[in-house]
């Protein structure tokens, strides 16, 4: 379970970094729709190859709900990443973890003392990795914070829903496919609505720039799908409260990628936050 959850954080961190870069060149909603369409195509092949459609049942409504909420959360997140520093936006969006943890506790899950301690330490580390830059003259714009809050709430809902969408591996393939199809339908409708009102759906460079970005868009979509799969498996093995906290370490990956590629300055407090996140991970793993 620990390994699966940590792989989830790695995949989500890389997907978020790639999506954030793409939204600096392409319209955010276009990034969401195209990347999710490409992911849906690959998942469709997997569903056919594994006969996963035979797993259809009432639980797929959880995937439908996750697919309806997901594009809105991604749109808010990508807009926040385009407007503000990744090293701040990504850790704050990780407060999404509060939603599935709250659901798990309401359903009766009770972690041990060391696991509670590890969750608190890891969560504090994730927040510290971005929080100190909110104040002072270089503070984050209010619009960025609003988008980030919307993304956190939406991501939390998706985490809670997708964990309930299947009870088997092949069922998970089907659930992820249904989720992506709903992502595309919801995002596509929003894209059409925006285009009707004159909102740009193509980059300034036109279709050629969009075509050139297809490999990156494919990576973002597939990394997001794979992260959802590993998270759902980790949550099923359980306990969910531990799995979701470990999976929420992805902002550390995003911040480190931004540091390595974009040369975003990593403050001492942010480095300390990454250390706390690692310490919390160790507590969770040993607890």
Count every helix, treating DSSP H or I runs of 4 or more residues as helices.
13
- Silhouette: globular
State the order of secondary-structure elements, H for helix, E for strand: HHHHHHHHHHHHH
Strand portion: under 5%
Mean pLDDT rating: 81
Unreliable stretches, pLDDT < 50, 5 or more residues? 134-138
End-to-end separation: 12 Å
**Total beta strands:** 0
Helix content: over 70%
Helix/strand/pairing category: mainly alpha
Radius of gyration: 18 Å
Largest sheet, if any?
A: none
Give a quick summary of the entry.
With 287 residues, this protein is an all-alpha fold.
Write up this protein.
The chain contains 13 helices and no strands. With 287 residues, it is mainly alpha-helical. The two termini are 12 Å apart.
